[in-house]
Protein 1
Amino acid sequence: MPAEQFVSELNEQIGREYAAHQQYVAVAVYYDSLTLPQLASFFYRQALEERGHAMMMVQYLLDAGETPTIPGVEAPRTDFDDVVAPIALALEQEKRVTDQISGLAAIAREANDYVSEQFVQWFLKEQVEEIATMSDLLAIAERATDRWSDIEDFIAREHPGDEGGDPTAPTAAGGA
Ligand code: FEO
């Protein structure tokens, strides 16, 4: 059985992952409205990944005999000063999530709950990748200034959307 504090913190994290999903949908829609289809597709895919993270956490609690509570989320930001701003926001969000997941690992370790600690390891690895991706994207976007085709080309080349599944990923509730 997972430690009680881990269960309640993981439940909070489920809400934050859904909030990240909503935020990335809002970012994708913003880019779609500006006819920047590669950026839009990239963030629609990121949104789905965040939903997947939430559902993996839901499944972990179910498997552990706990009943997760599906929380409501705060409204995402939908207006941005310029095309770079949503990427900067995304990078900040990923850094925050990394701290939150590290906090979950610390709670599990302190409670000698090594199964839960191992469960969150995959998410820590995922965060390293997401921070690297968003950092690269931010650097390209800042360099592109008004040449938006540069960043559209970068995404088409580096993140075409066929990265494939990760066989080591935890199972998600509902098979999502
Ligand atoms: Fe689920 Fe990108 O954190």
Note: Residues 114-144 form the longest helix (31 residues).
Protein 2
Amino acid sequence: MSHPYLKKINNKETNQTLVSLRMFAEQNKVPIITETGLNFLNQIIKLRNIETILEIGTAIGYSSIAMALKADVHITTIERDKKMFDMAKINVHNSNLEDRIDILFMDALEVDETTLDKVDLIFIDAAKAQSIKFFEKYETLLTDKGIIVTDNLLFHNLVDQEVKDRNLRQLLTKIDRFNKWVVQKQGYDTYIYDIGDGMSVSIKRSD
Ligand code: SAH
Ligand code: MG
């Protein structure tokens, strides 16, 4: 299944907006979701009839725009970097999605989450070392069909390897801590998938 040709035909991005946003991101080293990861996310949205989404980490708005183009969802997305926020604003405007994507210019750890509406899906894709904090802060907003997806958990499989760089090693330790924490988290069924850069899917238990 991992034949490169199969990968290509399965992942071909056809929407022009998305193609040019991805090109911009690659040229400017903005860490947007992989195409495989995005397809996975879009499948979850379809399969679970997701209508409302909270995203932590907007960057240039790529993932929000991609999800909104694929399904009739409303997205609130939070970004703390002014340059990113400004670009995301323009990109959302140019895609005519302002009525379905709200961008908050704030640090997600400082948002008063009680002012936000409940959501069906939370996509955590911001500072990797803070994923536990984001999870605990925002899980209170989940509806009954709630799902939390977290991105960048396997870091191109570096987590398992020996890493020399000290900062990277510390980051990997924190990601590893999140991975262990999230799979044992009570109240959810969680799996970590080797898709894109590694994604966890936590489905809120109904019992
Ligand atoms: N979801 C985007 C990529 C996000 S990259 C996509 O796939 O298209 C991660 C972003 O999270 C960066 O732009 C970074 O500025 C932002 N970020 C990191 N920590 C944050 C925080 N505490 N609050 C809000 N945004 C944060
Ligand atoms: Mg990511």
Note: The chain has a mean pLDDT of 91.
